[in-house]
Protein kinase domain containing protein (Paramecium octaurelia), 356 residues
Amino acid sequence: MGNCQSEELSISELELYTPQLSQYKLLYVIGKGGFSRVWKVKCQRKYFALKEMIKSKIIEKQSNKSVMNERILLQKLNHSFLVNMRGAFQTSTHLYIVMDYMEGGDLRYHLCRQGKFTEEQTRFFVICILMALQYLHKNLILHRDIKPENLVFDDKGYLHITDLGIARIWKPNNKNETSGTPGYMAPEVMMESDHGVACDYFALGCIVYECLTGKRPYQGKTRRQIRELIMSKQVKLPNLGLSKEVTDFVSRLLQRKAIQRLGNEGPDEVMSHAWLKNVDWNRHYDKLVEAPYKIVGKDNFDSKFVNQVLSISEYKEERDQNNLFQGFTYLENNDEQQATDIYTSKQKLLLSTKYY
């Protein structure tokens, strides 16, 4: 009858195969967050991005649930236009996530350098973003923080979505989950209403507007100012010699009422818009289309990070007495860890025809 022994790894076996910090050569920091840094690292002739998070600061900011949520989502997701996780481990003071390295840097870095992009370049960016959003949304996941800083280029000039820190599996009553970045946050999220995938398409509209004009559609200095701007007028693209199709695309994405917004019925509605007609989605997915915006060099990151000589810092011991980070360790291709589906059949049924 075959081998009847359990294939589940014991704690000692798990520790044996768990990645260790000593395996990675730290090169330089390529990004920073409230309680984290992202390093470019090298391991066995391959480059990775290593996200370093400080336990004491995570606990101080009461962000342990968000950190664990991102870690769980990353384990279950794998897509050509996401930044995928390759491993996760922890020490007594830090959490680490090993991820794909994207040498092109983020869209914000290139917006600051270029000022704005052509309609052709922007359309290509949108195609990349939509393929990732289609995957997320058809798996019932709302990203909720689509912005230039969370869109990163590979060496071919294709964009990938990263940072699932505030992403959530959709549920009907989510009005209390109002995290996001002002300037890209949909009105329904900002007004603390229930929301669906349409919130990510509002953010996409903001990004297209910004890529084409060099400015965000709503430029208030505070969340309150931005909310007042959003509620006071409907933004439209200025007349810059752009096609009527892209003007309509942006206008429909930036509709203040989610029910009227392009994408409220799901990703396929957006991908079938006239501005994207004749797109060969399969060729783009296979990265056979030459990117219209070229990535030059291998260090497309803010010089304030790249030029610093840094090391992993030591922080006060945080023993995780309440097991806040239990289960954080992840071994890629471990079937036992990937066996449980994150979605219930009930949740799938709820969104079988609607995305809100």
The chain has a mean pLDDT of 85.
